[in-house]
User: Fold this.
Amino acid sequence: MVPVGTGTLYQWWLVQDVVRYDNLQHAVGFGVVGRATWEALGRRLAPPPGARAAVAWWVVVLGAGAFGALNEVVEWVLTLTLETTRVGGYDNTARDLLANLVGGVLVGGASAWEVRRGERVAGRPPGAAG
Assistant:
């Protein structure tokens, strides 16, 4: 809630009426959370080498979406229990969920690329997370 002009950094438009700072924060933050989900589960899932990249992509996208949705539930509960949360309404929630998806898709793509590249490296242990 850092003050910027007459509002806060959280509400600051990077591209007027399209992308706010909060949206960028969600895309990056939950993209990273999705990648952390892959890092935590990749070895346990142990997909076969030919499917590892696709599984990595899905785990990252679904991890970003699931944890992002959990965050939105927490924000919703905060709006019901605290007088001033400044987290916004339905428009904010929809923008955040979309940003979580975009971050998951982009980081998932980068993760899948890294897995494919790693599979070509000799000596990679089977089921390594990436």
Notes: Residues 52-81 form the longest helix (30 residues). Residues 27 and 99 are 5 Å apart (CA to CA).
